[in-house]
């Protein structure tokens, strides 16, 4: 099978390695021709996934048509802010037999739409085979072929199982889940909690505090997802709790690291302008905050982080406000 990967950052590169390892013809699209040539000749993506040797069955190209033509599966792995414009470029190249899988984690900033909704708007007249892939997946570890799992949810179970078979390897176990909304929103909202987890680490608030943040964070993620049509059970699975743990605990997480830098006194503007890597939680917090407000959902951690990131509230004041909230029943959604 031919698998095209759109986005040659760390996750796109790691997924391209997996697609090749699973026995497929793997085509990685690079926006810049010099990057495509560098990756092909050095067999390494030094900028985004240093130290991972690219397999010989992985081809890089800056020619979008060459990558997309006759693809059975197309993985979309750009940062969420570029997904719509990328899908618009793909519309004339994708055919009815192409399965399009969104692997980015986020929701559209301007509209609050899920990326699979955006994909349906942009490609729905061309293909109905749309899917989401999400889970506890640090590119650095998957690139090194450490054992990992992920979840795929699609418009039909048959489509999800098709992707499952195409991408699974002896060390990469792909599960399917019927809840597209939950898989997608869990992957988006865990980045918000990961930013907060980095602040907790940076302020040395301790393990009790961090585990409280993760637990109450999962509660808040679930509340948001269920209000938007997700299934509660999804949040106890790999795309929910699994990814929350991976992102909040890992030294690889860019979201967690950004939170830690904030606690160390760097500004969010500085952090965003001094990294070539995407910090999705920064965008997600604003959009999720606005959607939650419109739906009158009480999202205290998201709201606190929104104040810290967008209105320069001091993290210690946000913490005091969270701890001083009215006392309540733990399970009340
Ligand atoms: N890195 C991971 O471990 C990981 C794992 C799972 C999901 N994701 C998700 O995958 C998505 C991509 O993240 P990443 O980590 O691969 O990216 P990255 O941070 O490693 O790299 C940034 C990417 O943005 C691309 N880019 C920059 N400007 C662009 C533009 N104008 N148009 C299109 N692309 C542009 C760059 O080419 C590069 O591919 C994100 O939504 C992220 O949350 C990442
Ligand atoms: O490095 P982060 O924080 O973008 O997280 C990467 C993945 O989403 C972890 O599953």
TrEMBL record:
Source organism superkingdom: Bacteria
Cell compartments where the protein resides: Cytoplasm
Major localization class: cytoplasm
Domain Glycerol-3-phosphate dehydrogenase NAD-dependent C-terminal per the UniProt entry, residue ranges: 179-319
Record keywords: Cytoplasm, Lipid biosynthesis, Lipid metabolism, NAD, NADP, Nucleotide-binding, Oxidoreductase, Phospholipid biosynthesis, Phospholipid metabolism
UniProt binding sites for NAD(+): 7-12, 139, 254
EC numbers: 1.1.1.94
Family label: Belongs to the NAD-dependent glycerol-3-phosphate dehydrogenase family.
The protein's name: Glycerol-3-phosphate dehydrogenase [NAD(P)+]
């Amino acid at each position: 099978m031919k698998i095209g990967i759109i986005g040659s950052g760390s996750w796109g590169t790691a997924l391209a390695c997996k697609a090749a390892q699973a026995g497929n013809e793997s085509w990685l699209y690079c926006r810049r021709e010099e990057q495509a040539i560098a990756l092909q000749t050095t067999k390494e993506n030094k900028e985004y996934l240093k130290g991972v040797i690219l397999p010989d069955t992985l081809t890089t190209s800056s020619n979008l048509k060459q990558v997309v033509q006759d693809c059975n599966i197309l993985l979309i792995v750009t940062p969420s802010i570029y997904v719509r414009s990328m899908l618009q470029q793909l519309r004339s190249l994708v055919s009815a037999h192409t399965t399009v899988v969104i692997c980015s984690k986020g929701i559209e900033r301007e509209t609050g739409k899920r990326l699979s909704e955006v994909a349906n708007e942009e490609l729905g007249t061309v293909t109905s085979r749309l899917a989401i892939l999400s889970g506890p997946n640090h590119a650095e570890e998957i690139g090194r072929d450490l054992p990992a799992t992920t979840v795929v949810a699609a418009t039909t179970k048959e489509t999800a199982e098709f992707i499952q078979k195409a991408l699974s390897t002896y060390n990469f176990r792909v599960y399917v889940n019927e809840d597209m909304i939950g898989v997608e929103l869990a992957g988006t909202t865990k980045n918000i909690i990961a930013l907060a987890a980095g602040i907790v680490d940076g302020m040395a608030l301790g393990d009790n505090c961090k585990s409280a943040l993760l637990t109450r964070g999962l509660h808040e993620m679930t509340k948001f997802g269920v209000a938007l049509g997700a299934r509660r059970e999804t949040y106890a699975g790999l795309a929910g709790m699994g990814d929350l743990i991976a992102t909040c605990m890992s030294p690889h997480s860019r979201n967690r690291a950004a939170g830690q830098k904030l606690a160390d006194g760097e500004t969010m503007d500085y952090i965003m302008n001094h990294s070539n890597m995407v910090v999705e939680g920064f965008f997600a917090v604003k959009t999720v905050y606005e959607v939650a407000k419109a739906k009158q959902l009480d999202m205290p951690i998201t709201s606190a982080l929104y104040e810290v990131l967008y209105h320069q509230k001091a993290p210690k004041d946000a913490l005091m406000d969270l701890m001083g909230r009215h006392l309540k029943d733990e399970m009340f959604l």
